[in-house]
Amino acid sequence: MGICEGRTVIITGAGGGLGRAYALAFAAEGANVVVNDIRQEAADAVVDQILTAGGKAIASADDITRLETAQRIVDAALAAFGEVHVVVNNAGILRDRMFISLSEDDWDQVMRVHLKGHFCLANILGRRWRDQAKAGKKIAARIINTSSGAGLQGSVGQSNYAAAKGGIAALTLVQASELARYGVTANALAPAARTSMTESAMPDVVKAPETGFDAWAAENVAPLVVWLGSEHSSHVTGQVFESQGGRISVCDGWRTGPQKDKGARLTPLEAGATVDELMKQAVPAQKVWGT
Fold first, then answer.
1. Is 182 designated active site?
2. Rounded distance, CA 186 to CA 236, Å?
3. Which of 22, 60, 147, 165 is catalytic?
4. What is the DSSP letter of 243?
5. Active site residue 22
6. Catalytic residue among 60, 147, 148, 155, which?
C-alpha cells in the first residue's frame, strides 16, 4: 500500500513538467489526484496516463486565481473523492525582463498566477479544514507551496518572479504558524528541474545528459513532494526545501544576525559606523542568480 493511499491531492499546473511528475508520483502511492491545468488537453493526458496505470484521477481546467473558480476545483474533488487532504500549489508563469523594462502587465500577471494562485485554493481548503477541526474531526492536511531559488536569493532579469516567489516563502511561514492548531502543515520547496519554464530561461543549463543520471529530471523532485503530502510528514511544517536530482537541503531563511545597541538614539554617522562594524561580522548572503 502506498504512503498516500486514500488521500486526495489537488495539484495545480499539473499538465506538464513538475506538476505532471507530482501527479504521477502521488497516484503511484495510492492518492486520488486532481490534475489542474489551464490547458484542458494537457490535464486530460495526465489523467489518462494515471487511469491506464490503475490509478484514480480527474482533470480540471478551472482558474486558480479567482476564489469563485478555485471553488469549482475543490467541489469537483469532493464530488469525485469525498475529501481533499493536500494541495500542491505548483502552477506558474514567467515574464522575464530587466526591472526597468518591466511593464505593469508583466508585474501583475506574475503576481496574479503565483501569489494569488497560491492564495485561493489554500484559503478555501484552509477554511474547510479549520471548520472540520473545530467540529472535532482529526485533520492531517497539507499545503505544499512552490518558491524558487530566485525568491530566496534573487535573480537578475526576474524581479517580478523573484518578488512573488519570496512572498510565497513568507506566506508559507505564516500559514504554518496559523494553521498548526487545526492539524494542517504548510511547507514550500524551491525545485530545480527541467520544465518548459526553465528550458525557456536557461536551456543549456537544464539540457538532459546523453548518459548517466539526469539531475534536472522533474521526477527527481516528486518523492519529497509526495512525502510532504503524506501523513508521515506531520512533524515538519514551516520549512522551505531546495530539491534537485538526489539532493535535498533545508533553507536557512532571514533571521536576526549580529547587532549592537547604543541604548540611545544614533546620529547618522553613528548609524553608518555601526552598519560597517556589523557587516564585518555578518555571514555574506548567497549571490543573486545571474551575477
1. no
2. 8
3. 165
4. E
5. no
6. 148
Can you give the pLDDT of all 291 residues of the chain as single tens digits? 899 999 999 999 999 999 999 999 999 999 999 999 999 999 999 999 999 999 999 999 999 999 999 999 999 999 999 999 999 999 999 999 999 999 999 999 999 999 999 999 999 999 999 999 999 999 999 999 999 999 999 999 999 999 999 999 999 999 999 999 999 999 999 998 877 666 666 777 677 777 888 888 999 999 999 999 999 999 999 999 999 999 999 998 888 999 999 999 999 999 999 999 999 999 988 899 888
Torsion of CA 17, 50, 225, 141, to 10 degrees: 130
Q: What's 230's DSSP letter?
A: S
The SS3 assignment for 32 reads: strand
User: Are 79 and 58 a contacting pair, CB within 8 Å?
Assistant: no
Which residue, among 132, 144, 135, 148, has the nearest Cα to 185 in the 3D structure? 144
Q: Which three cell numbers stand for residue 287?
A: 549571490
CATH 3.30.300.130 matches 8-250: no
Q: Is 116 a catalytic residue?
A: no
Which of 60, 161, 230, 243 is the catalytic position? Answer: 161
Chain centre distance of CA 69: 20
* pTM check: above 0.85: yes
Beta bridge partners, 250, equal: 241
Residue pair 189/144 in contact (Cβ under 8 Å)? The answer is yes
Using DSSP, how many helices (H) and how many strands (E) does the chain show? 10, 8
Residue ranges covered by each domain of the chain? 8-250
Distance between alpha carbon 256 and the CA centroid of its chain, in Å?
25
